[in-house]
Amino acid sequence: MEVITRIDTMREKLISSRQVGQKIGLVPTMGFLHDGHLSLIRKAAQENDIVVVSVFVNPTQFGPQEDYEEYPRNVERDALLAEEAGATFIFHPSVEEMYPENYETYVEVTDLTKVLCGRSRPGHFRGVTTVVTKLFNIIQPDRAYFGQKDAQQTIVIQKMVRDLNQNVKICVCPIVREKDGIAMSSRNTYLTNEERMQAAVLHKSLEMAQKMIDEGERDAKTITKAIEKQICTMEKAYIDYVALVSLHNLQPLTVLSGDILIALAVKFGATRLIDNVIITV
Amino acid sequence: MEVITRIDTMREKLISSRQVGQKIGLVPTMGFLHDGHLSLIRKAAQENDIVVVSVFVNPTQFGPQEDYEEYPRNVERDALLAEEAGATFIFHPSVEEMYPENYETYVEVTDLTKVLCGRSRPGHFRGVTTVVTKLFNIIQPDRAYFGQKDAQQTIVIQKMVRDLNQNVKICVCPIVREKDGIAMSSRNTYLTNEERMQAAVLHKSLEMAQKMIDEGERDAKTITKAIEKQICTMEKAYIDYVALVSLHNLQPLTVLSGDILIALAVKFGATRLIDNVIITV
Is B203 a catalytic residue? Predict the structure, then answer.
Protein backbone atom coordinates (compact mmCIF):
# COMPACT_ATOMS: atom_id res chain seq x y z
CA MET A 1 0.00 0.00 0.00
CA GLU A 2 1.25 3.45 -0.89
CA VAL A 3 1.25 6.57 1.26
CA ILE A 4 0.70 9.52 -1.10
CA THR A 5 1.42 13.08 -0.01
CA ARG A 6 0.84 15.12 -3.19
CA ILE A 7 -2.55 16.07 -4.64
CA ASP A 8 -1.40 15.66 -8.26
CA THR A 9 0.05 12.22 -7.56
CA MET A 10 -3.15 11.15 -5.83
CA ARG A 11 -5.23 12.23 -8.84
CA GLU A 12 -2.92 10.42 -11.29
CA LYS A 13 -3.05 7.19 -9.31
CA LEU A 14 -6.83 7.05 -9.66
CA ILE A 15 -7.25 8.01 -13.35
CA SER A 16 -6.81 4.54 -14.83
CA SER A 17 -9.02 2.86 -12.19
CA ARG A 18 -11.78 5.32 -12.89
CA GLN A 19 -11.44 4.85 -16.66
CA VAL A 20 -12.02 1.10 -16.39
CA GLY A 21 -15.05 1.70 -14.19
CA GLN A 22 -13.60 0.67 -10.84
CA LYS A 23 -15.47 2.04 -7.86
CA ILE A 24 -13.59 4.26 -5.43
CA GLY A 25 -14.38 4.50 -1.72
CA LEU A 26 -13.02 7.32 0.45
CA VAL A 27 -12.62 7.16 4.23
CA PRO A 28 -11.69 10.66 5.45
CA THR A 29 -9.89 10.56 8.81
CA MET A 30 -7.62 12.66 10.99
CA GLY A 31 -5.51 9.53 11.55
CA PHE A 32 -4.49 7.78 14.79
CA LEU A 33 -6.82 5.05 13.58
CA HIS A 34 -8.90 2.98 15.97
CA ASP A 35 -11.45 0.22 15.48
CA GLY A 36 -14.10 2.81 14.56
CA HIS A 37 -12.05 3.97 11.58
CA LEU A 38 -11.15 0.38 10.70
CA SER A 39 -14.83 -0.58 10.54
CA LEU A 40 -15.29 2.20 7.95
CA ILE A 41 -12.29 1.00 5.93
CA ARG A 42 -13.53 -2.60 6.01
CA LYS A 43 -16.97 -1.52 4.84
CA ALA A 44 -15.42 0.57 2.07
CA ALA A 45 -13.27 -2.39 0.99
CA GLN A 46 -16.38 -4.60 0.77
CA GLU A 47 -18.23 -2.09 -1.41
CA ASN A 48 -15.51 -0.65 -3.68
CA ASP A 49 -12.55 -1.71 -5.84
CA ILE A 50 -10.22 0.99 -4.54
CA VAL A 51 -10.19 2.40 -1.00
CA VAL A 52 -8.46 5.71 -0.23
CA VAL A 53 -8.00 6.53 3.45
CA SER A 54 -7.13 10.17 3.93
CA VAL A 55 -5.09 10.97 7.03
CA PHE A 56 -5.05 14.71 7.59
CA VAL A 57 -5.34 16.62 10.84
CA ASN A 58 -7.29 19.51 9.35
CA PRO A 59 -6.32 22.82 10.97
CA THR A 60 -9.39 24.72 9.71
CA GLN A 61 -11.76 22.62 11.84
CA PHE A 62 -9.99 23.40 15.12
CA GLY A 63 -10.73 26.53 17.12
CA PRO A 64 -7.83 28.69 18.37
CA GLN A 65 -8.14 27.26 21.92
CA GLU A 66 -8.54 23.67 20.75
CA ASP A 67 -6.21 20.69 20.51
CA TYR A 68 -4.81 20.99 16.95
CA GLU A 69 -1.19 20.83 18.10
CA GLU A 70 -1.75 18.03 20.62
CA TYR A 71 -3.98 15.89 18.40
CA PRO A 72 -2.31 12.45 18.30
CA ARG A 73 -0.50 11.53 15.07
CA ASN A 74 1.17 8.31 13.89
CA VAL A 75 0.93 7.82 10.14
CA GLU A 76 3.24 4.76 10.02
CA ARG A 77 0.99 2.87 12.41
CA ASP A 78 -2.08 4.18 10.51
CA ALA A 79 -0.67 2.83 7.22
CA LEU A 80 -0.22 -0.68 8.66
CA LEU A 81 -3.68 -0.77 10.21
CA ALA A 82 -5.38 0.69 7.13
CA GLU A 83 -3.68 -1.82 4.82
CA GLU A 84 -4.77 -4.71 7.02
CA ALA A 85 -8.36 -3.41 6.89
CA GLY A 86 -8.30 -3.25 3.09
CA ALA A 87 -7.10 0.24 2.11
CA THR A 88 -5.45 0.70 -1.30
CA PHE A 89 -3.92 4.12 -0.67
CA ILE A 90 -3.28 6.41 2.27
CA PHE A 91 -3.59 10.07 1.22
CA HIS A 92 -1.53 12.07 3.69
CA PRO A 93 -0.97 15.62 2.42
CA SER A 94 0.84 18.37 4.31
CA VAL A 95 -1.03 21.42 5.55
CA GLU A 96 0.77 23.52 2.88
CA GLU A 97 -0.40 21.11 0.18
CA MET A 98 -4.04 21.45 1.24
CA TYR A 99 -3.97 25.13 2.25
CA PRO A 100 -1.29 26.91 0.22
CA GLU A 101 -0.40 30.55 0.89
CA ASN A 102 -3.35 32.93 0.37
CA TYR A 103 -5.90 30.12 0.68
CA GLU A 104 -9.32 31.78 1.07
CA THR A 105 -12.19 29.58 -0.12
CA TYR A 106 -14.67 27.93 2.25
CA VAL A 107 -17.79 25.81 2.00
CA GLU A 108 -20.41 26.44 4.65
CA VAL A 109 -23.68 24.80 5.64
CA THR A 110 -25.29 27.71 7.41
CA ASP A 111 -28.19 26.51 9.59
CA LEU A 112 -27.55 22.91 10.66
CA THR A 113 -24.19 24.13 11.98
CA LYS A 114 -25.63 26.73 14.37
CA VAL A 115 -26.58 24.17 17.03
CA LEU A 116 -24.96 21.43 19.16
CA CYS A 117 -21.21 21.11 18.37
CA GLY A 118 -21.49 24.00 15.88
CA ARG A 119 -22.57 26.27 18.70
CA SER A 120 -19.77 25.14 21.03
CA ARG A 121 -17.13 25.13 18.27
CA PRO A 122 -17.67 28.13 15.97
CA GLY A 123 -16.07 27.58 12.55
CA HIS A 124 -15.59 23.85 13.16
CA PHE A 125 -18.08 22.65 10.56
CA ARG A 126 -16.94 25.23 8.01
CA GLY A 127 -13.51 23.61 8.29
CA VAL A 128 -15.04 20.13 7.97
CA THR A 129 -17.20 20.89 4.92
CA THR A 130 -14.30 22.72 3.25
CA VAL A 131 -11.78 19.92 3.68
CA VAL A 132 -14.31 17.22 2.78
CA THR A 133 -15.21 19.12 -0.42
CA LYS A 134 -11.51 19.34 -1.29
CA LEU A 135 -11.09 15.60 -0.66
CA PHE A 136 -14.16 14.84 -2.80
CA ASN A 137 -12.71 16.93 -5.64
CA ILE A 138 -9.25 15.34 -5.38
CA ILE A 139 -10.36 11.70 -4.99
CA GLN A 140 -13.73 11.88 -6.82
CA PRO A 141 -15.01 8.89 -4.84
CA ASP A 142 -18.18 6.97 -5.64
CA ARG A 143 -18.80 6.51 -1.91
CA ALA A 144 -17.49 8.20 1.22
CA TYR A 145 -17.67 6.69 4.71
CA PHE A 146 -18.30 8.52 7.98
CA GLY A 147 -18.90 7.30 11.52
CA GLN A 148 -22.20 7.83 13.32
CA LYS A 149 -20.24 8.97 16.38
CA ASP A 150 -19.95 12.37 14.72
CA ALA A 151 -23.72 12.53 14.23
CA GLN A 152 -24.00 16.22 13.40
CA GLN A 153 -21.07 15.95 10.99
CA THR A 154 -22.82 13.19 9.02
CA ILE A 155 -26.00 15.27 8.80
CA VAL A 156 -24.13 18.43 7.77
CA ILE A 157 -22.14 16.56 5.11
CA GLN A 158 -25.25 14.88 3.70
CA LYS A 159 -26.88 18.31 3.45
CA MET A 160 -23.82 19.77 1.72
CA VAL A 161 -23.76 16.92 -0.81
CA ARG A 162 -27.44 17.44 -1.64
CA ASP A 163 -27.25 21.24 -1.77
CA LEU A 164 -24.08 21.44 -3.88
CA ASN A 165 -25.01 18.44 -6.08
CA GLN A 166 -21.77 16.66 -5.20
CA ASN A 167 -21.37 13.32 -6.99
CA VAL A 168 -20.84 10.96 -4.08
CA LYS A 169 -22.89 8.62 -1.92
CA ILE A 170 -22.47 9.20 1.81
CA CYS A 171 -22.36 5.99 3.87
CA VAL A 172 -22.78 6.29 7.63
CA CYS A 173 -21.49 3.41 9.77
CA PRO A 174 -22.44 2.51 13.36
CA ILE A 175 -20.52 3.69 16.42
CA VAL A 176 -17.84 1.22 17.54
CA ARG A 177 -17.49 1.02 21.31
CA GLU A 178 -14.97 -0.18 23.86
CA LYS A 179 -16.00 -3.02 26.22
CA ASP A 180 -17.32 -0.54 28.80
CA GLY A 181 -19.43 1.17 26.15
CA ILE A 182 -17.34 4.30 25.59
CA ALA A 183 -17.38 5.35 21.94
CA MET A 184 -14.01 4.91 20.25
CA SER A 185 -12.23 8.21 19.61
CA SER A 186 -8.64 9.27 19.02
CA ARG A 187 -9.22 11.79 21.80
CA ASN A 188 -9.77 9.01 24.38
CA THR A 189 -5.96 8.84 24.57
CA TYR A 190 -6.03 12.21 26.38
CA LEU A 191 -7.99 10.81 29.35
CA THR A 192 -6.46 9.95 32.72
CA ASN A 193 -7.49 6.57 34.13
CA GLU A 194 -10.02 8.22 36.40
CA GLU A 195 -11.54 10.32 33.60
CA ARG A 196 -11.57 7.25 31.36
CA MET A 197 -13.61 5.30 33.93
CA GLN A 198 -16.01 8.18 34.54
CA ALA A 199 -16.50 8.75 30.78
CA ALA A 200 -18.36 5.45 30.56
CA VAL A 201 -21.31 7.40 31.99
CA LEU A 202 -22.02 8.88 28.53
CA HIS A 203 -23.07 5.60 27.00
CA LYS A 204 -24.83 4.54 30.20
CA SER A 205 -26.92 7.69 30.24
CA LEU A 206 -27.91 7.13 26.59
CA GLU A 207 -28.94 3.56 27.45
CA MET A 208 -31.01 4.90 30.31
CA ALA A 209 -32.68 7.41 27.96
CA GLN A 210 -33.41 4.62 25.49
CA LYS A 211 -34.99 2.60 28.31
CA MET A 212 -37.14 5.56 29.44
CA ILE A 213 -38.42 5.98 25.89
CA ASP A 214 -39.02 2.23 25.52
CA GLU A 215 -41.12 2.44 28.68
CA GLY A 216 -43.23 5.24 27.23
CA GLU A 217 -41.63 8.51 28.33
CA ARG A 218 -42.16 11.19 25.63
CA ASP A 219 -41.31 14.40 27.49
CA ALA A 220 -37.95 15.74 26.27
CA LYS A 221 -37.31 17.78 29.41
CA THR A 222 -37.80 14.79 31.71
CA ILE A 223 -35.32 12.70 29.73
CA THR A 224 -32.80 15.56 29.42
CA LYS A 225 -32.97 16.10 33.18
CA ALA A 226 -32.42 12.39 33.87
CA ILE A 227 -29.37 12.27 31.58
CA GLU A 228 -27.89 15.42 33.11
CA LYS A 229 -28.45 14.04 36.61
CA GLN A 230 -26.67 10.81 35.79
CA ILE A 231 -23.70 12.57 34.14
CA CYS A 232 -23.39 14.94 37.10
CA THR A 233 -22.74 12.03 39.46
CA MET A 234 -19.27 11.93 37.87
CA GLU A 235 -17.16 14.63 39.48
CA LYS A 236 -14.81 15.05 36.50
CA ALA A 237 -17.70 15.64 34.08
CA TYR A 238 -18.64 19.11 32.77
CA ILE A 239 -21.66 19.10 30.49
CA ASP A 240 -21.35 21.09 27.23
CA TYR A 241 -24.77 20.00 25.98
CA VAL A 242 -27.41 17.31 26.33
CA ALA A 243 -29.75 17.60 23.35
CA LEU A 244 -32.89 15.81 22.21
CA VAL A 245 -33.44 17.00 18.65
CA SER A 246 -35.12 16.02 15.43
CA LEU A 247 -32.72 13.90 13.37
CA HIS A 248 -33.70 15.81 10.24
CA ASN A 249 -33.18 19.45 11.18
CA LEU A 250 -31.43 19.18 14.58
CA GLN A 251 -34.09 21.42 16.14
CA PRO A 252 -35.00 20.78 19.80
CA LEU A 253 -38.05 18.67 20.56
CA THR A 254 -40.54 19.15 23.38
CA VAL A 255 -42.53 15.96 22.88
CA LEU A 256 -40.65 13.07 21.30
CA SER A 257 -41.90 11.73 17.97
CA GLY A 258 -40.38 10.61 14.70
CA ASP A 259 -36.62 10.15 14.28
CA ILE A 260 -34.82 11.55 17.31
CA LEU A 261 -31.15 12.20 17.91
CA ILE A 262 -30.01 12.27 21.51
CA ALA A 263 -26.58 13.88 21.46
CA LEU A 264 -24.17 14.59 24.29
CA ALA A 265 -20.97 16.61 24.57
CA VAL A 266 -19.21 16.44 27.92
CA LYS A 267 -15.78 17.52 29.08
CA PHE A 268 -13.72 15.25 31.30
CA GLY A 269 -10.88 17.46 32.46
CA ALA A 270 -9.62 19.16 29.29
CA THR A 271 -11.01 16.44 27.00
CA ARG A 272 -14.32 17.01 25.24
CA LEU A 273 -16.10 13.77 24.33
CA ILE A 274 -19.26 13.27 22.29
CA ASP A 275 -21.71 10.40 21.99
CA ASN A 276 -25.20 9.90 20.61
CA VAL A 277 -28.02 7.54 19.80
CA ILE A 278 -30.76 7.66 17.18
CA ILE A 279 -34.19 6.50 18.31
CA THR A 280 -37.34 6.26 16.23
CA VAL A 281 -40.47 6.81 18.31
CA MET B 1 -30.63 20.85 -29.52
CA GLU B 2 -32.39 20.03 -26.27
CA VAL B 3 -33.45 22.38 -23.49
CA ILE B 4 -33.09 20.44 -20.24
CA THR B 5 -34.69 21.64 -17.03
CA ARG B 6 -33.98 18.83 -14.54
CA ILE B 7 -30.64 18.17 -12.82
CA ASP B 8 -31.01 14.38 -13.00
CA THR B 9 -31.84 14.49 -16.72
CA MET B 10 -28.85 16.73 -17.38
CA ARG B 11 -26.53 14.31 -15.57
CA GLU B 12 -27.93 11.30 -17.46
CA LYS B 13 -27.52 13.00 -20.84
CA LEU B 14 -23.78 13.40 -20.22
CA ILE B 15 -22.91 9.97 -18.79
CA SER B 16 -22.34 8.17 -22.08
CA SER B 17 -20.36 11.05 -23.62
CA ARG B 18 -18.07 11.11 -20.63
CA GLN B 19 -17.62 7.32 -20.70
CA VAL B 20 -16.35 7.39 -24.30
CA GLY B 21 -13.95 10.20 -23.41
CA GLN B 22 -15.75 13.09 -25.07
CA LYS B 23 -14.77 16.50 -23.71
CA ILE B 24 -17.47 18.66 -22.20
CA GLY B 25 -17.45 22.46 -22.27
CA LEU B 26 -19.72 24.54 -20.02
CA VAL B 27 -20.77 28.13 -20.72
CA PRO B 28 -22.60 29.43 -17.62
CA THR B 29 -24.91 32.33 -18.47
CA MET B 30 -27.93 34.15 -17.11
CA GLY B 31 -29.42 34.02 -20.62
CA PHE B 32 -30.65 36.82 -22.88
CA LEU B 33 -27.64 35.91 -24.98
CA HIS B 34 -25.65 38.49 -26.91
CA ASP B 35 -22.52 38.29 -29.07
CA GLY B 36 -20.35 38.18 -25.94
CA HIS B 37 -22.01 34.93 -24.84
CA LEU B 38 -21.98 33.60 -28.40
CA SER B 39 -18.22 34.10 -28.63
CA LEU B 40 -17.87 31.90 -25.52
CA ILE B 41 -20.13 29.23 -27.01
CA ARG B 42 -18.22 29.25 -30.32
CA LYS B 43 -14.92 28.90 -28.47
CA ALA B 44 -16.34 26.06 -26.37
CA ALA B 45 -17.59 24.33 -29.54
CA GLN B 46 -14.12 24.55 -31.09
CA GLU B 47 -12.44 23.01 -28.05
CA ASN B 48 -14.95 20.37 -26.87
CA ASP B 49 -17.18 17.58 -28.19
CA ILE B 50 -20.21 18.59 -26.12
CA VAL B 51 -21.18 22.15 -25.18
CA VAL B 52 -23.64 22.81 -22.37
CA VAL B 53 -24.94 26.38 -22.09
CA SER B 54 -26.60 26.98 -18.75
CA VAL B 55 -29.30 29.65 -18.73
CA PHE B 56 -30.20 30.49 -15.15
CA VAL B 57 -30.91 33.88 -13.63
CA ASN B 58 -29.35 33.05 -10.28
CA PRO B 59 -31.25 34.71 -7.42
CA THR B 60 -28.45 34.26 -4.85
CA GLN B 61 -26.13 36.63 -6.70
CA PHE B 62 -28.60 39.55 -6.67
CA GLY B 63 -28.90 41.91 -3.72
CA PRO B 64 -32.36 42.72 -2.30
CA GLN B 65 -32.43 46.11 -4.08
CA GLU B 66 -31.09 44.76 -7.37
CA ASP B 67 -32.67 43.81 -10.69
CA TYR B 68 -33.42 40.09 -10.22
CA GLU B 69 -37.08 40.47 -11.17
CA GLU B 70 -36.44 42.81 -14.12
CA TYR B 71 -33.46 40.92 -15.51
CA PRO B 72 -34.34 40.20 -19.18
CA ARG B 73 -35.30 36.60 -20.03
CA ASN B 74 -36.03 34.85 -23.33
CA VAL B 75 -35.01 31.21 -23.30
CA GLU B 76 -36.59 30.35 -26.68
CA ARG B 77 -34.47 32.98 -28.41
CA ASP B 78 -31.45 31.87 -26.34
CA ALA B 79 -31.91 28.28 -27.52
CA LEU B 80 -31.91 29.30 -31.20
CA LEU B 81 -28.84 31.52 -30.83
CA ALA B 82 -26.95 28.97 -28.73
CA GLU B 83 -27.63 26.16 -31.20
CA GLU B 84 -26.40 28.29 -34.10
CA ALA B 85 -23.20 29.02 -32.14
CA GLY B 86 -22.58 25.30 -31.55
CA ALA B 87 -24.28 24.38 -28.25
CA THR B 88 -25.32 20.76 -27.67
CA PHE B 89 -27.61 21.36 -24.69
CA ILE B 90 -29.25 24.26 -22.93
CA PHE B 91 -29.49 23.60 -19.19
CA HIS B 92 -32.32 25.76 -17.91
CA PRO B 93 -33.36 24.70 -14.40
CA SER B 94 -36.00 26.40 -12.28
CA VAL B 95 -35.05 28.23 -9.09
CA GLU B 96 -36.75 25.43 -7.07
CA GLU B 97 -34.61 22.84 -8.88
CA MET B 98 -31.38 24.64 -8.00
CA TYR B 99 -32.38 25.91 -4.55
CA PRO B 100 -34.95 23.53 -3.06
CA GLU B 101 -36.67 24.29 0.24
CA ASN B 102 -34.23 24.58 3.18
CA TYR B 103 -31.28 25.17 0.87
CA GLU B 104 -28.40 26.38 3.08
CA THR B 105 -24.95 25.62 1.60
CA TYR B 106 -22.67 28.31 0.17
CA VAL B 107 -19.19 28.53 -1.30
CA GLU B 108 -17.28 31.69 -0.51
CA VAL B 109 -13.99 33.19 -1.63
CA THR B 110 -13.35 35.47 1.29
CA ASP B 111 -10.72 38.10 0.39
CA LEU B 112 -10.80 38.73 -3.38
CA THR B 113 -14.53 39.43 -2.96
CA LYS B 114 -14.11 42.26 -0.45
CA VAL B 115 -13.16 44.84 -3.11
CA LEU B 116 -14.56 46.36 -6.35
CA CYS B 117 -17.94 44.80 -7.24
CA GLY B 118 -17.81 42.69 -4.07
CA ARG B 119 -17.76 45.84 -1.99
CA SER B 120 -20.64 47.44 -3.90
CA ARG B 121 -22.67 44.23 -4.06
CA PRO B 122 -22.32 42.33 -0.74
CA GLY B 123 -23.13 38.63 -1.19
CA HIS B 124 -22.93 38.82 -4.99
CA PHE B 125 -19.83 36.68 -5.38
CA ARG B 126 -21.00 34.18 -2.76
CA GLY B 127 -24.01 33.62 -5.02
CA VAL B 128 -21.77 33.33 -8.08
CA THR B 129 -19.29 30.85 -6.56
CA THR B 130 -22.14 28.78 -5.12
CA VAL B 131 -24.07 28.45 -8.37
CA VAL B 132 -20.92 27.87 -10.42
CA THR B 133 -19.87 25.09 -8.02
CA LYS B 134 -23.31 23.51 -8.38
CA LEU B 135 -23.06 23.73 -12.19
CA PHE B 136 -19.57 22.20 -12.10
CA ASN B 137 -20.87 19.31 -9.99
CA ILE B 138 -23.91 18.74 -12.20
CA ILE B 139 -22.19 19.05 -15.61
CA GLN B 140 -18.65 17.96 -14.59
CA PRO B 141 -17.17 19.92 -17.49
CA ASP B 142 -13.57 19.61 -18.68
CA ARG B 143 -13.56 23.33 -19.47
CA ALA B 144 -15.75 26.27 -18.43
CA TYR B 145 -15.89 29.58 -20.31
CA PHE B 146 -16.26 33.04 -18.79
CA GLY B 147 -16.09 36.52 -20.29
CA GLN B 148 -13.34 39.00 -19.43
CA LYS B 149 -16.02 41.68 -19.03
CA ASP B 150 -16.69 40.28 -15.55
CA ALA B 151 -13.00 40.57 -14.65
CA GLN B 152 -13.34 40.12 -10.90
CA GLN B 153 -15.67 37.16 -11.41
CA THR B 154 -13.05 35.36 -13.53
CA ILE B 155 -10.38 35.97 -10.89
CA VAL B 156 -12.64 34.84 -8.04
CA ILE B 157 -13.67 31.69 -9.90
CA GLN B 158 -10.10 30.80 -10.80
CA LYS B 159 -9.19 31.18 -7.12
CA MET B 160 -12.12 28.99 -6.06
CA VAL B 161 -11.12 26.27 -8.54
CA ARG B 162 -7.54 26.25 -7.27
CA ASP B 163 -8.47 26.41 -3.58
CA LEU B 164 -11.17 23.72 -3.71
CA ASN B 165 -9.27 21.50 -6.20
CA GLN B 166 -12.19 21.56 -8.63
CA ASN B 167 -11.57 19.46 -11.74
CA VAL B 168 -12.13 21.99 -14.51
CA LYS B 169 -10.05 24.31 -16.67
CA ILE B 170 -11.27 27.92 -16.63
CA CYS B 171 -11.09 29.66 -20.03
CA VAL B 172 -11.44 33.44 -20.10
CA CYS B 173 -12.47 35.02 -23.43
CA PRO B 174 -12.04 38.66 -24.55
CA ILE B 175 -14.70 41.34 -24.11
CA VAL B 176 -16.96 41.68 -27.16
CA ARG B 177 -17.95 45.29 -27.88
CA GLU B 178 -20.59 47.16 -29.83
CA LYS B 179 -19.44 49.42 -32.70
CA ASP B 180 -19.14 52.42 -30.36
CA GLY B 181 -16.97 50.41 -27.96
CA ILE B 182 -19.53 49.71 -25.23
CA ALA B 183 -19.05 46.22 -23.74
CA MET B 184 -21.89 43.85 -24.59
CA SER B 185 -24.16 43.15 -21.63
CA SER B 186 -27.71 41.93 -21.20
CA ARG B 187 -28.17 44.96 -18.95
CA ASN B 188 -27.55 47.36 -21.89
CA THR B 189 -31.22 46.78 -22.78
CA TYR B 190 -32.16 48.82 -19.69
CA LEU B 191 -30.53 52.00 -21.05
CA THR B 192 -32.45 54.91 -22.59
CA ASN B 193 -31.04 56.22 -25.87
CA GLU B 194 -29.34 59.08 -24.07
CA GLU B 195 -27.83 56.83 -21.40
CA ARG B 196 -26.72 54.41 -24.11
CA MET B 197 -24.84 57.16 -25.94
CA GLN B 198 -23.24 58.46 -22.76
CA ALA B 199 -22.20 54.96 -21.66
CA ALA B 200 -19.68 54.84 -24.50
CA VAL B 201 -17.51 57.00 -22.24
CA LEU B 202 -16.51 53.90 -20.24
CA HIS B 203 -14.56 52.34 -23.07
CA LYS B 204 -13.24 55.74 -24.19
CA SER B 205 -11.87 56.47 -20.71
CA LEU B 206 -10.15 53.06 -20.64
CA GLU B 207 -8.57 53.79 -24.03
CA MET B 208 -7.38 57.12 -22.69
CA ALA B 209 -5.85 55.39 -19.66
CA GLN B 210 -4.14 52.89 -21.93
CA LYS B 211 -2.70 55.79 -23.96
CA MET B 212 -1.46 57.58 -20.82
CA ILE B 213 0.33 54.41 -19.73
CA ASP B 214 1.75 53.85 -23.23
CA GLU B 215 3.15 57.39 -23.03
CA GLY B 216 4.87 56.64 -19.74
CA GLU B 217 2.45 57.65 -16.97
CA ARG B 218 2.90 55.35 -13.95
CA ASP B 219 1.09 57.23 -11.19
CA ALA B 220 -2.20 55.48 -10.36
CA LYS B 221 -3.80 58.60 -8.86
CA THR B 222 -3.14 60.69 -11.97
CA ILE B 223 -4.72 58.08 -14.23
CA THR B 224 -7.67 57.49 -11.86
CA LYS B 225 -8.33 61.24 -11.75
CA ALA B 226 -8.22 61.51 -15.55
CA ILE B 227 -10.69 58.63 -15.96
CA GLU B 228 -13.05 60.09 -13.34
CA LYS B 229 -12.86 63.50 -15.00
CA GLN B 230 -13.75 62.08 -18.40
CA ILE B 231 -16.67 60.01 -17.02
CA CYS B 232 -18.00 63.03 -15.12
CA THR B 233 -18.45 64.94 -18.37
CA MET B 234 -21.49 62.70 -18.91
CA GLU B 235 -24.37 64.07 -16.87
CA LYS B 236 -26.16 60.70 -16.51
CA ALA B 237 -23.06 58.97 -15.12
CA TYR B 238 -22.64 58.19 -11.40
CA ILE B 239 -19.30 56.56 -10.58
CA ASP B 240 -19.41 53.49 -8.31
CA TYR B 241 -15.67 52.86 -8.58
CA VAL B 242 -12.66 53.53 -10.78
CA ALA B 243 -9.93 51.11 -9.70
CA LEU B 244 -6.34 50.50 -10.74
CA VAL B 245 -5.40 47.24 -9.03
CA SER B 246 -2.98 44.35 -9.28
CA LEU B 247 -4.48 41.68 -11.54
CA HIS B 248 -3.36 38.97 -9.15
CA ASN B 249 -4.76 40.08 -5.79
CA LEU B 250 -7.02 43.03 -6.78
CA GLN B 251 -5.22 45.28 -4.30
CA PRO B 252 -4.87 48.99 -5.20
CA LEU B 253 -1.65 50.19 -6.79
CA THR B 254 0.14 53.48 -6.19
CA VAL B 255 2.78 53.13 -8.89
CA LEU B 256 1.85 50.96 -11.85
CA SER B 257 3.94 47.86 -12.53
CA GLY B 258 3.32 44.25 -13.53
CA ASP B 259 -0.13 43.06 -14.59
CA ILE B 260 -2.71 45.75 -13.93
CA LEU B 261 -6.48 45.65 -14.02
CA ILE B 262 -8.25 48.95 -14.63
CA ALA B 263 -11.86 48.33 -13.69
CA LEU B 264 -14.86 50.66 -13.78
CA ALA B 265 -18.38 50.46 -12.43
CA VAL B 266 -20.65 53.35 -13.32
CA LYS B 267 -24.38 53.87 -13.03
CA PHE B 268 -26.30 55.44 -15.91
CA GLY B 269 -29.69 56.18 -14.44
CA ALA B 270 -30.66 52.96 -12.61
CA THR B 271 -28.37 50.77 -14.71
CA ARG B 272 -24.98 49.78 -13.34
CA LEU B 273 -22.43 49.00 -16.06
CA ILE B 274 -18.93 47.60 -15.71
CA ASP B 275 -15.93 47.57 -18.02
CA ASN B 276 -12.21 46.90 -17.71
CA VAL B 277 -8.87 46.48 -19.39
CA ILE B 278 -5.79 44.48 -18.44
CA ILE B 279 -2.46 46.18 -19.09
CA THR B 280 1.00 44.78 -18.49
CA VAL B 281 3.51 47.49 -17.63
Answer: no
